[in-house]
Amino acid sequence: MVGTPVLFIVIPLLAAFIIPLTGMVWKNSVRIIPGIVLSYMLILSISLLWHITETGTVIEVIAGWKPPIGINLVFSPFSGFFATLMIFLGLLVWVYSYKFKRNIDSEPALKYFILLMLLVTGSVGIVLTGDIFNMFVFIEIVGISGYGLTSFYTRRDSAEAAFKYLFMGSIASTFLLLAIMIVYSQLGTLNIAEIADKMPMMSNKLKVISLIFFMLAIGVEAEMFPLNGWAPDVYTQAPGPIGAAFAGIVAKAATYATIRVMFTMYDLSGAMDFLIVMGILTFIVAETTALRQDRLKRMLAYSSIGQMGLVMVAFGIGTKEGIFAALFLIFNHAIIKGLLFFSGSYLVYTKKEKHISDVNGMGKYLPITSVLFTIGAFAIIGLPPFSGFWGKLAILTAAADSKMVALIAIILSVSVLEAVYYLRVVNRIYFFPKKESMETQKPTINALIAMISLGIIILVIGFYPDLITGFIDRAAADLMDKTGYIKDILTINN
Amino acid sequence: MEKYLEILNYAIYGAAILLLLIGLYGALTKKSLIKIVLGLSIMDSGVHLLMISIGYLKNGTAPIFSPGHENELAKMVDPVPQALVLTAIVIGFGVTAVALALVIRLYKHHNTLRIDEIKNLKW
Amino acid sequence: MDIINIILLVFLAGALLTAFAGKVSSIVQDTLFLITIIVPAILFFLNININSETVISLSKIQLTFGLTPLSLFFAFIVFGLAILAGFYAVGQMQGKKRKGYLYFNFLLSIAAMFGILVSKDLVSFFIFWEIMTWSSYLLVIYNGKNVQQIGIKYFVMSAIGAYAMLMAIVIVHSLTGSFLISDMIDGFADMSAGMKLLIPILLLTGFGVKAALMPLHIWAPDAYSNAPMSYTSVFSGALSKMGIYGMVIVFMTLITKLPQESLIRDIIAWLGAITAAISTLWAIKQDDAKRLLAYSSIGQLGYIVVGVAIGTPLAMLAGLFLAFMHGVFKSTLFMVVGAVEKQTGTSNLKEVTGLIRKMPWTFLAALISIIALAGIPPLGGFVGKWMLYESLITSNHYLLVTLVFFSSTAAFLYCYKFLFGFFLGQEEKEWAHVKEAPAIMVVPMLILSAISVVLGTFPQLILKPINSALAFYGMPDTYNNLWKESMIFNKWGDQVALTPIVYGIAIVFVIFAVFLFFKNRKTSRYVTTKDISTSGEVPKEYENLTFKENFFQPFLRAVEPAMRRQMDKYMLAFAKGLEDLFDFTRRIYNGNGQTYAIYALLFVILLLLLSNNLFS
Amino acid sequence: MKKAIILISLTILGVYLIDIFTGIGFGTQHFASGVKDAYLIGSKETLRVSNVVTSIVVNFRGFDTLGEVTVLFLASMALGGILYKKRHDVGERSVLFPSTRIVMSGAKLLFPSIVLLGAYVFIHGHLSPGGGFQGGTIIATGFLLMLITYRNYSVSHNRLSWVESLAGVLFISLGLAGYFVHDSFLANVFPEGKLNDLFSGGVIGIIYVAVGFKVAAELTGIIYTILHEKD
Question: B95: pLDDT confidence band, cut at 50, 70 and 90?
Fold first, then answer.
């Protein structure tokens, strides 16, 4: 064991505070230290993930106060799966953007890496924390680093996107506080496990209303249907790799929060059906909108939102198969959307407007990037033998096992649309003549490394899904075991 | 008379909720970005006030064991919401600062503060 | 490691190597490509073992592979065509770009077809089905012509089919707890009535797309004609048969257990017949040889579907026999078109004329295949069609047989048009330079033509495997009593009854030909079409004496009402309508941050108002 | 129309909220057993910190505070990124009204006492109402006063960075000391002392001082960045 969960938060923060100092001495350290920290976090999380297969959930208390008095961090198979995935993607984003821009040595560019590192840290914090108010703090950390990253390019309409994000984000955080306070006023605790334990003591009315406020607050970050207007703008205007980070890290953390709140904290019976309805609405609206996009990144953004809707549906199914499917989808979405954003931003790198037609004929000029984009597109459509297929099969099987035939039909019909708009792009890459007077930007070595490793993962998991099904299975079982979670935390003797 | 006083007890809740609604109204209807940010701040304040008042105990004292008051444990108001509000205020400040910075940039970029004219990104 | 896994791995490794071998040398690439086709075929045929099963265990799913007699029969088609088309492709791709791309996808789709045939569970079936779909999709858009429309149309239709199938698969899994095809068949009887109806319909939709059954056929004409011809010969010859393969299984195992059995059979048979009729008419109308053949393929698949759907032993035999024959002669014809296109640069029947003397071997292959296609004795097509007619009549489908017979007769028209267009008619100067296609392209065509000829006389060569395949699914053994089933077979069981007559005619024909040849040896003289000055008027060079313009115009005018309603247009209109709808709905993202916040408020209000109903 | 919908919606929301909160009740204990009592007792007995809010903010829920400090840090960093200009012109700021001599002298006079007050507030954060955030804010107001009074008053960015970073590092190092000594991040490593002593509460006072410095530096930085925007 290399460390305990608290280091996931503390080490990056320490680094973030030190970097401004080292940056004065050695400029490149601003770029390198986040990478080292993220690698350390990855090693830590993988070793912890192995460790917990033997010992069971690791629960760490802060300041020596046992839950529910102190804040505690929970590294369970479920949260550990999320954390590892997010850190891995964060590291890849770092690798990808190590030399993303030629003029990256200017000052704000250096802030990019710190913001990225803290974005990952905040997301990991959301996932690991066992305290609802602490979760709020981490959501805000993610939010502010998100605003900063979104408005990174001063030339674009990025401030507009960031402002929309901030607008929604602060409404969300207000309602989150409100919800937390309602719960606290009734139960006198902020610890998720104890809240879950005491939940029957709360009156039904307050339960429902606080849950609604929670849904509004977390739904904004989780890109739930009527609350996701900010998301496509942010994905589009942020630097390319940050789109991948939003899709793969922030949205995942928010989904985790949704599940923790709805599944673990509350015991309302209609909640899961509600999740299915919202998920399917999100899925349909986002995918149909994606079909009509003429900008590449915006299309990817809507597609990403749609996928998150599908994840919500899978969680809403609520059986162990459903949660397995949801986690598989999350894994797939993280790596595939990551690859699509990575390769997509190079395909339209030189273009200001980033139209889909700008990818015309890129297959010849950027062969590796194009192939990788194609692999990503095929994988996200759910074609075998890429990893996306297993996720799709899992959610459909889960839906079928719960006798939701209509749901299967909806998912599959919308998937046809998804196939259409991705293949449109692939067709353009390979079979359209290149536009006049267009220079291309060859991907840098580090970007290629990041993209190729994602592509390889997609293929390997596609051929042999068992590499991760074990982890996902344990994670799903862990989430299902609600009483175990409560007992583990409330009876810890550390 | 006591009944009215009972209602007056809830005045602070009412005020807080009113603040929340006023802030929300401002954020949702005003066109100026600055006013929207103000609205968001007011909304935040409303929630903070609400939080504080939830922790209040009638005739309670501050949760400080000042000399001579070491044993007034039962009378002390709930310190937790106060601690939370402290955190929430600081976070709200950070968000507001970022929001204002964004407003400055939006104004430079679009030369207007009207939110319905800043719609380059849509559909 | 079982032989099936090895074959699949060989395919995969070979495909990858071939794709990148182009960097080394073109010859190496060609060789690798051919090796990758031939080696698995040899491995497969040396190790046929019906009873063995391979299981690849994943934690959630077990992928099971094994052979059935039915898949063995289809594997013959796939491997046979793949090898011949492979050689042909090497010839056709000489000096073309994107060779690695074609080889890679070609191999992958062959591998996928093989995978489909050896899959014993639905998941691996589906996996290979999808691999087949996307690899063929990548080849359909190979030429880059109008890919946005053609490619997307193909893929969308395929996706609709595949997803229908996937839906059936997961439902079956939820009902039986297993993905095995055999478990599906066993458990089918216990399912509820609704599911019993739903599952076969979904599966048939899936297979119907690949078999180009109305109304799911709209992708086919474009896709067949747009893919490179070396691949289209496999595409039409073997890949479409995967749909037939699935249909056979569904009809023999699931439909028979349904209360609505005869209804579904009739509906599908009628759909097949209508497909055949309509697409035959469309084929007549085409001026492009590729499109003509594409429509013809759809029509032929229609016959096959009729046979499979009717499902009497004779009809099944006829269907599968036709499937085999169609694979043989249609891929020959596509190869012919490819050869002509390679040599002349176009496949338009109006432009190319009089190649009979330039490309005699190609003509020979075309002639034989056209005869087989038209169903004229003594070639293979005739046997199949006869059996089909007879089975329809004996099972009292008189209207159906009329329709089938009509389209079969109408098919003569396009057969003639095809043959005439390319090979007969006046020789234009434009095509004077045309030479015969290289041997590597011609030989596969001739081999396939030879198969057509042989099967006309010795259909039992292929009827025997068909019979054992059907027997596996519980069809009564008809092979030894074929004469009871159809009057085309004689009592001795293994010969076509007409064979003596055919031989008689053939011998007379040959004698006559020899006689003519010797008689006219000295006096015959080659004349061009323009050499008709003896009738008094000397035609000018530019005058077009062929009647290729408006071929069969009166006939087409007569059937025009039937062709006015095009499925294509309806579907396109539907798609357009959907897109407009989505354009409308996406306006909810109107770009104003405030509006988004209002959505959030309304979301909360709505939930608050509905909270009593939502949560309890 | 839009406004009407919003007003109606807000009314509904208000009705629901009032309904909830009158249900919750004001000025009474709402829950049977909560963490509140544990905090009160723990603060008095174990931590020996008389200001319970401080012990919650710094120790019981110190992790929140770490996050909070990070939020501020992030805000100042994001602000710098958003309002970034190629060359930092430290020249004169544009002000609507130039300050008069009275204001100038007054500001000079007030500034040290404001800073002193701020320092007092965060040093005594564990004894009396106040603490690092409050004290830091007070100090920042001192700088704000100077900045708006004197057009060319400038704060060295580097110096702010140093203060900010060192304070942050101090906070985390104290936390890590607890991690290495007591296996628990932020656990107390210094003697607790006596209730109501200046040197009581172990690390809590020190951490709050660090927080005070950090907040002061960050707030000043934020104000400084925004003030330097030219329109």
Answer: very high
